[in-house]
Every structure is written in structure tokens, then in C-alpha cells.
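sanity check this record:

:::
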Amino acid sequence: MPHHSFASDNYAGAHPEVLAALAAANTGHARAYGADQWTSRLQDVIKTHFGDQASAYPVFNGTGANVVALMSMLPRWGAVITSRYAHIHNDENAAPERVGGMKLLTVDAPDGKLTPAAIDEHAWGWGDQHRAQPLVVSITQSTELGTVYTPDEVRAIADHAHSLGMRVHMDGARLANAAAYLGVPLAAITTDAGVDVLSFGGTKNGLVFGEAVIVLDPAAVEGIDYVRKMTMQLSSKMRFVSAQLLALLDGGLWLRSASHANAMASRLRSGLDELIAAGAAPGLAFTQETQANGVFAILPPASVEPLREQFGFYDWNAARGEVRWMCSFDTTERDVDAFVAGVGAELDPRGA
């Protein structure tokens, strides 16, 4: 298997600029639990990206960010409307439900994106004591299927949710990839589009560890400081989380890294499209648009394991042979071209 696999952007190491920021923060003593100069500076930088009302709450990981965000947005009787593909539903071992005590109400989203009409499937029953109260809509940007909400699509969801008295949470584990694809500032698909609370991702974009809950509308949360502590997401040496986030956000590393990952996914898709056009990849088909840094495809069953052994990737839907190929900030053109060549060598009937 080559050094860089296509399994997940979580596989990538830390960006050298992030490691340098960590080393620079490792100087002497600093006040604990967020009362340090790096966390203070982070608040200023967050405002430049997300607006004057925005405030950041660094946490350890993405699941923690989602749980802290949603718990602070909901009463104990609250429910969250989200896609059936949502990370909070499929990949967090029911942490929002087990730890946060909330109900997740899922709807179908064939391209990974919610719509106002899909939300309406569960947007009812307020005041009914027998039903968990739908009070938050949670969307993922970019989605679990690699697709991207436009600013207008986010705004339509936010306007609809707000008109029904609900708040909007965004799981932004790959927010940087979405903004890079759209060519817009981070605020354009968050604050300006009506999102209330954001889980901002760092680990998938070159951090060693650390994410942040970013409160865009202070009225959307209650007791978030207490929630972060009681859910074990309050770091005593918070400077080391904040320093990494600063390395990402204070100077454009977030955009450079995400743009590169997206470009590698686009190169992969283009190379495989050329194989298909040449008749060199029978049985290969794509299941989603390639917009961010993920490529979703169907492979002939017999080819999955031989290719996986060489290049490393995960099944998305093994029952129908659907796989996911992810690119990272450190994926190289050589990695991509080797993968395309490997697919061609495996599938091309003319080589048999």
C-alpha cells in the first residue's frame, strides 16, 4: 500500500505548520482552562471569519463538538431533525442520544442534503407531551456523501427552521472543503446563511487533535460552559488546541489545505472518468457528484479487495459495491495517478 491511502482524511498526519504552532505554544507556563493568550487570540480570529457575535469553545474531537453543541441548544425533551446519513446518527455510537439525552429524527437525503420539504416530515407535534419536541435541525457541510450545500440552500433550511421556531446546527467537520469548493468565505455558508451553532472541524484538515464549537448566535445556546465540562470536553491545557486552530485559521492554511484535498479528489474523478470513456473500466460508476474531497463509486465486486490491498479505502455500501475514496491535504498527484493506473490495470479487459 502506498504511504498515502484513500481511506479517510483522518489517516493523514499533522500539517507541518500545525506542528510548528504546537511547538511554539510549548513555552513555559500558561493559565489553564482557556484563560491563556492563544485561546484569547482565537476568539479574535474567529470573529474575523464568522462575525462579531461569534465565540469559540475548543474541544477535543468532532463527536464532542457535536454533543456539546446540540446539548447546549436543546432542553431534555428536545429532538434533532437530520439526514439518515448524518455522522451524528451513524458514526458516533449514539453519543448524542446516550450522552446528550436527545432524540434524533432522521429523514432520507439521497444526495446527503436536507431540504425544507424533507424537514417537514418530522417538523410537527409541538406541544404534544407524547412526542420528543423537534427544536433543532442539524446539517453537515460538506455532507457525508461528499456533496456541498450552496449558501442559498443553507439559507432556505435556516429560514424554514427559524419560521417553525427551530434552531440550526451545522456539523462542519469538512466545512473548509465546502468553502473551498464554493469559493466563498466561511461566513457565507454559516453566519450569513442563518446557521446558529457550528461544529468546526480541524482534525480532517491537518490538526493533531481538536475541534471547536462556534456559537454564531448567542441566543441559541444555554449553559455551554457547563455542558463542555460535564461532557469531559474541557481541556486544562487548552492552549494546545487553540494554537492549532489558530495555525489553521489565522493566515489561510485552512483554505490552502482544503483546496489541495479537493483538487486531488477532482483529479481522481477526472482520471477515472477518462478510463470509463475509453472503455477501460467496465463496472465502474459514480454515485455522487465529486464536489469536496471525497469520491463515491461502484466497483465490480471482484475488484474491491485487490484494489483495497494496494491503496486502502473503505466500503460505503458493501451490499451494492459502493466505496468511498477520500483525499487529504497531503495526498499527492503521484498518489492519485498511481490509483487511477491501478484501477485501470484491475478493470481494463484489454489487459487480461
Notes: The first helix runs from residue 16 to 25. The longest strand covers residues 133-140. The domain at 254-351 is CATH 3.90.1150.10 (Aspartate Aminotransferase, domain 1). The chain has a mean pLDDT of 96.
